[in-house]
TrEMBL record, chain B:
InterPro entries: ABC_transp_permease (IPR001851). Signal peptide: none annotated. Coiled coil: none annotated. CDD domains: TM_PBP1_transp_AraH_like. Its main location: membrane. It comes from the Bacteria. Pfam families: BPD_transp_2. This is Xylose transport system permease protein XylH. It is a multi-pass membrane protein. PANTHER family: ABC TRANSPORTER PERMEASE PROTEIN YPHD-RELATED-RELATED, XYLOSE TRANSPORT SYSTEM PERMEASE PROTEIN XYLH. The chain crosses the membrane at residues 72-92, 104-124, 131-148, 154-175, 182-202, 222-247, 268-286, 292-310, 338-359, 365-384, 396-416, 422-440.
Length: 263, 451
């Protein structure tokens, strides 16, 4: 299932991030290939969102290297990441309450028509995009403030798909979604993989992870705690890595298996 | 603005009836244009979405819902204007005379310029307390350049305005880069720039500026559009109406072609009709006095340009975005400090332009320029007009509407020979009233899920 290309689109090498006295990330390694869905899991506070934000340029890294298509790049502001082709759906969504759905979808990359914002085309595309996600939003012209939590989440996800990203990062995209919408998002993730995009999916829901991910990367207390191919790793093994209840032999075994799988 | 169409609708119900049949068809199309395949999947309309019913009743219910939801828009302004005009007219029957209304239209443009700049700052959810002092300083700088140093008046004007922009940018820099609260930076500016102005004026106190020609003549009370030609006012009104009409129908055509909801013809005609009535009545009244002052024309032109910038350009969108959510704006790749600095620079620039208008009013630079309640009036105008103090919500037209209210009060009080003490108290009260309305409507907007 994984079409592992030689060089990953995105790779983190020994990335560390501190917030004052908190060492949020220590020497984290992560690789995402085109057409691969990497699930990033870990307990609350493990550093998943922080990792996402370092990739997205919200919090620049302190140490380590971020490689894009094999070459080291410097990502110091959100603009850098967008320029590379990283689209991010943040856990805290980060939408502008006063702007309408269309305004939020296109924020920062408005379509222009003779130098003027092209509301008509933007609205048309927005409606089409939202309808492919089969999401019910009363109108694309109402302010974000008047949407439900799940609707906002969908808008945030749709926002990531506008533009032509190469890597899509979804930080707990299904946390606030209903049954149908969750299924839609999982379908979407699969469609992204078919389109040969790299996807980083953060989720606490093991069923979702097992359903769509190719690889599971576990973070624990800001450090890597194993990376497993989904299809031959059991639920329990992942849980054990997340909670740290693994005894060393098992971790080593899992590590060996990943190494073999990679060969 | 939308309220105008509603109020006018009752008296122009004939037009409405004529267009009704047409409107019905179009609104159906709006939901699912049958001939447009691209729009076909969009037929899923949430059944809970309240769609406006047909005709007049639809407008009334929608209007009621909006008021309940705290989307007051320009409603308080129109109510306020009617109340104010009635009260002053009852006190003094010269109030609604053409001459007095013409006075209002001339004097409101100076403070109005300050209010335009403030709209930008308020959209960020910040405040600029220095605009009054900057306007005073700019008029003094102009006088020093043009009169004391004999420089070309237009060059002096450009220099004065550039100084205003630089002052604004500097204050913005302290706010955006150093992180000093805007309120404190501009409070320092309020005092500091006023001090600089007093120092420049020195012991002479007042510098008289010759007003036979140049910018001061242009901005003076005796300078009229097209030299008082009767046709001038109607030309302006007609231009406004025709451009609005073309713009609206152009938008309708593009939207229809793209298969997205568009404004029905009946609504466009109503809106434009309301605008036409208002602008031609205003033109007739001003012609009845002495014509449209050039100061007012410049003010209106500035409003049109700024409205365009705010609503149609990416810069304007960024301003709204920063006002609506700094973190979201930042993550969308918007350079937040740059927006903040430029917004304060714009505010400083408009303050300087307003200062030139003040200089035009008195043909002098005086110690009192930009002092007193100038700042309060400018803030009150922007807020009364419907621009929220909390950021992210508002239009630049609030500078016009708010100034109408404010200048009506000022002129009315002058007519009644009220002394400054009373004027200050009333200005304070009006500002308080405006921010109370803003805060209350924000609260009910929150309750209605639109906060
Ligand atoms: N802006 C910040 N300033 C200071 N500390 C932070 C900041 N953001 C995150 N942290 C710290 O970094 C650690 C990791 O947080 P992070 O949000 O990445 O966790 P997470 O894995 O996403 O958890 P969750 O599953 O609850 O979303 C936490 O200890 C948190 O307190
Ligand atoms: Mg998180």
């Amino acid at each position: 299932m994984v079409h592992v290309s030689a060089t990953p689109v995105l790779a983190l090498r020994g990335v560390s991030k501190r917030f004052g006295a908190v060492q949020a990330l220590t020497d984290v390694e992560l690789e995402v290939h085109a057409g691969e869905v990497v699930a990033l899991v870990g307990d609350n506070g493990a550093g998943k969102s922080t990792l996402v934000k370092t990739i997205a340029g919200v919090h620049p890294i302190d140490e380590g290297v971020i490689e894009w298509e094999g070459k080291p790049v410097s990502i110091t502001k959100p603009h850098d990441a967008q320029g590379l082709g990283v689209a991010t759906v943040y856990q805290d969504l980060a939408l502008c309450d006063n702007l309408d759905v269309v305004g939020n979808l296109y924020l920062g990359r408005e379509l222009l028509h003779r130098g003027v914002i092209d509301e008509v085309t933007m609205e048309k595309n927005a409606r089409e995009l939202l309808s492919t996600l089969s999401i019910r939003i009363p109108s694309v012209r109402i302010p974000i403030a008047s949407l439900s939590g799940g609707q906002r989440q969908v808008v945030a996800i749709a926002r990531a798909l506008i533009g032509d990203p190469k890597v899509v990062i979804l930080d707990e995209p299904t946390a606030a979604l209903g049954v149908e919408q969750t299924a839609q998002v999982l379908d979407l993730v699969e469609r992204l993989r078919e389109r040969d995009l790299g996807v980083i999916l953060i989720s606490h829901n093991m069923a979702d992870v097992k359903a769509v991910a190719d690889t599971v990367a576990v973070l624990r207390l800001g450090k890597n705690n194993g990376s497993f191919p989904v299809k031959d790793t059991s639920h329990e093994e992942i849980i054990a890595a997340i909670t740290g209840a693994t005894d060393n032999a098992v971790t080593r075994r899992a590590g060996r298996r990943t190494a073999e799988a990679a060969k | 603005m939308s309220d105008t169409s509603k109020t006018v609708k009752s008296d122009s119900s004939e037009t409405a009836k004529v267009d009704k049949a047409e409107g019905v068809i179009e609104e159906q199309e709006t939901v699912a244009p049958a001939d447009d395949p691209t729009a076909a999947p969009v037929t899923v309309v949430d059944p809970r979405l309240l769609v406006r019913e047909e005709g007049f009743k639809g407008y009334v219910t929608e209007f009621k819902r909006k008021v309940k939801g705290g989307e007051l828009g320009s409603l308080p302004v129109f109510v306020g204007l009617i109340v104010i005009w009635t009260i002053f007219q009852l006190q003094n029957d010269r109030f609604l005379s053409a001459d007095n209304l013409s006075n209002i239209s001339y004097y409101m443009s100076a403070t109005g310029m300050l209010a335009i700049g403030l709209v930008f700052v308020l959209l960020l959810g910040e405040i600029d307390l220095s605009v009054g002092s900057v306007s005073g300083l700019s008029s003094t700088l102009f006088a020093v350049f043009a009169v004391n140093n004999g420089m070309d008046p237009w060059l002096s004007l450009v220099l004065a305005v550039l100084t205003g922009i630089a002052i604004g940018a500097m204050q913005g820099w302290f706010f955006a880069r150093i992180g000093v609260p805007a309120f404190v930076v501009t409070l320092a500016g309020f005092l500091g720039w006023n001090g600089l102005m007093l120092w420049l004026l020195g012991d002479s106190g007042t510098i008289n500026i010759p007003s036979e020609s140049g910018p001061i003549h242009l901005l003076g009370q005796g300078s009229f559009f097209m030299d008082q030609a009767i046709i001038g006012a109607y030309l302006l009104a007609g231009l406004g109406v025709v451009l609005t009409l073309i713009g609206n129908f152009g938008e309708q055509r593009r939207r229809r072609a793209a298969g997205v909801p568009f404004r029905p013809t009946s609504e466009i005609l109503l809106r434009v009709g309301a605008l036409a009535v208002a602008s031609f009545v205003a033109a007739a009244v001003l012609n009845n006095a002495s014509g449209v002052s050039n100061a007012l024309v410049i003010f209106l032109a500035a409003l049109v340009i700024v409205d365009f910038v705010l609503r149609r350009t990416t810069y304007g969108r960024k301003v709204f975005a920063v006002g609506g959510g700094i973190e979201a704006a930042r993550r969308a790749g918007i350079n937040v400090p740059m927006i903040r600095i430029t917004v304060f620079a714009i505010s400083g620039g408009f303050a300087a332009v307003g200062g030139m208008f003040f200089a035009g009013q008195t043909a002098s630079a005086t110690l009192s320029a930009g002092g007193g309640n100038t700042l309060m009036l400018a803030i009150a105008a922007a807020v009364i007009g419907g621009t929220s103090l909390f950021g992210g919500r508002g239009t630049v037209w609030s500078a016009l509407l708010g100034m109408l209210v404010i200048q009506s009060i000022q002129t009315g009080l002058d007519l009644l020979n009220m002394n400054t003490s009373i004027q200050y108290m009333i200005t304070g009260g009006v500002l308080l009233g405006a921010v109370v309305i803003d805060s209350v409507s924000r609260k009910s907007q929150k309750a209605a899920g639109r906060g």
